[in-house]
Amino acid sequence: MSPIRYRAARGRHRKPRASRTTTLLRGGLLTGVVGTVAVTGATTPASAGEQPAERTGELPILDAEAAALAAAATETYVGETTARDDWQRAQDRALARAHEQAAERRAAAEEAAERRAREQAAAEAAAAEEAAAAAEQVQTLAAATAEAPAPATGGSGSGSAVVDFVRAQLGDAYSMGSTGPGAWDCSGLVQAAYASVGIDLPRTSGEQSLRGTQVSLDALQPGDILYWGGAGSAYHVAIYAGDGTFIGAQNPSTGVAQHDLSWDSPSGAVRIL
Fold first, then answer.
1. Which is the CATH superfamily of the domain at 152-271?
2. Span 48-90, pLDDT tens digits
3. What residues form DSSP beta bridges with 215?
4. pTM over 0.85
5. What SS3 class is residue 140?
6. Cβ contacts of 261-265, under 8 Å, gap ≥ 24
7. What share of the chain is helix, strand, coil (3-state, %, to 5)?
8. Contact yes or no for 25/73 (Cβ under 8 A)
9. Are 177 and 185 in contact (CB under 8 A)?
10. Type and span of the H or E element at 268
């Protein structure tokens, strides 16, 4: 057996020793180009003077292994590149969404701040208007109190004359806005009764309840003005007639009538005379 045939036979029965080319392919340093060169070199015939007498089985095995390693390396590279691209795109989308959400939160916060500012401004304006109205009411009440005439006694200004006037109207009709004769509302009757003794009173119940001096319901005198409601905001007035009674234009059902204080207890009283 010739030496060449002996080597070929041994090559068929043992694993080929890893060459430097195979090591580089496994380490990722060569690509499919190397495999192509290896295959091409294996298939290109040598010159007539250099052709070996016999081919061995070692080169086809090396060529197949190199091609497989090159293909695997290429596939791994493509897969890793695609994964990096997908990850980068996902990161870019997440970053863009985060920016959008931050902008939305800033816009919502600015809108809420503007709304609170508008509400606060409206509340302050309403409070200022209310304070101005209250101040104006206080000034009006103070002016009305300052204009009240001093109490008078005796003669034609006596309380008994006022009582006599309202007693003469007993049985007259009640009519809202009427000032007599024959029909009255509550403040119209009181105004006319004091006009009969030379004292000018304002027209409404609220204004009449501020004139003169406030007196206790336990110390009433004939001719005092009784009022229902608050001083300055009274809704009804009548004349104290003495002996725990009063006379006033009550309502359309009773007209001008006389009643005990217990029939409808007043809130307060003022003394003009």
1. endopeptidase domain like (from Nostoc punctiforme) (3.90.1720.10)
2. 444 544 555 556 666 787 788 888 888 888 888 888 888 888 8
3. 269
4. no
5. helix
6. 261/217, 264/228, 265/217
7. 55, 15, 30
8. yes
9. yes
10. strand 268-271
